[in-house]
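Researcher: I'd like a candidate sequence for this fold, 281 residues long. If you have to choose between options at a position, lean toward the conservative one.
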């Protein structure tokens, strides 16, 4: 009596289509992110490759970051979708191996940052101080990023020196040689109470004389703590939420790896069964 027929299959259709729709959603998200990133990049008022001086410029340029992440999601989603739908072991292997590499890279990066936390923090703060503060008045994307961070976190500057970091900007630094109208001031996003003119136009001089050490009341209306310290404070006060976000990123990756690896095993078993059936026939 034959143990099987050519129509028998080890491949679980429920597993197959769960993986397909899981990656179809992932694929659509990748296309959306890629489109938004491309549109945002093209809509910039000014861009040249001279603006991209380091890896940090890629990280802080949200349009480029969106394009890169979108491309990655598009490719992974494509491999997962087509691999599951066509029962293609090559594409399924590419998919779950890539996910494994990404996941292990994230875990390894987190462990490295934890073990080298002091060195990493020092390098991170130095990079922010040297890359964001001086370019604040030169690059519109850097200005928007810094203003958003300072307003949302209630901070001013990046390092432990706080608001004094703005002495590193040629327009804001408080020196006799600086003839800028912004000399000795800090950006309006540093102000705890931002003055506005008509139509909500911010008063860019609400932080005037904040860097002038001779002015005793100059810091009354501004945030004085650095943004890195503010981030650490927010993380410490919201550890359950931070943990939930981390788990929220990890679970879909682990689920994708498990589903794809299981499907790959089922497809491999099915191919072996077909070979045995054809030999018997």
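Model: Candidate sequence:
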């Amino acid at each position: 009596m034959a143990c099987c027929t050519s129509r028998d299959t080890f491949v679980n259709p429920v597993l197959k289509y769960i993986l397909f729709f899981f990656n179809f959603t992932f694929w659509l998200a990748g296309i959306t992110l890629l489109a938004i990133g491309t549109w945002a990049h093209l809509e910039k008022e000014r861009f040249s490759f001279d603006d991209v001086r380091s890896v940090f410029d890629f990280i802080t340029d949200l349009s480029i970051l969106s394009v890169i992440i979108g491309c990655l999601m598009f490719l992974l989603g494509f491999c997962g979708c087509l691999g599951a739908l066509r029962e293609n072991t090559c594409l399924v292997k590419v998919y779950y191996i890539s996910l494994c590499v990404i996941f292990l890279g994230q875990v390894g990066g987190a462990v490295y940052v934890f073990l080298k936390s002091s060195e990493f923090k020092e390098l991170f703060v130095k990079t922010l101080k040297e890359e964001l503060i001086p370019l604040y008045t030169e690059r519109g994307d850097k200005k928007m990023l810094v203003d958003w961070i300072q307003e949302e976190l209630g901070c001013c500057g990046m390092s432990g020196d706080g608001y004094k970091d703005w002495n590193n900007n040629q327009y804001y630094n408080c020196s006799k040689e600086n003839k800028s109208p912004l000399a000795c001031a800090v950006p309006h996003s540093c102000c705890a109470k931002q003055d506005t003119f008509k139509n909500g136009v911010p008063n860019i001089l609400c932080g005037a004389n904040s860097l002038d050490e001779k002015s005793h009341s100059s810091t009354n209306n501004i945030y004085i703590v650095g943004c890195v310290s503010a981030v650490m404070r927010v993380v410490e006060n919201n550890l359950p939420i931070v943990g939930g976000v981390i788990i929220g990123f990890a679970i879909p990756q682990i689920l994708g790896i498990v589903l794809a690896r299981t499907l790959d095993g089922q497809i491999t078993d099915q191919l072996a069964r077909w070979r045995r059936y054809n030999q018997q026939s």
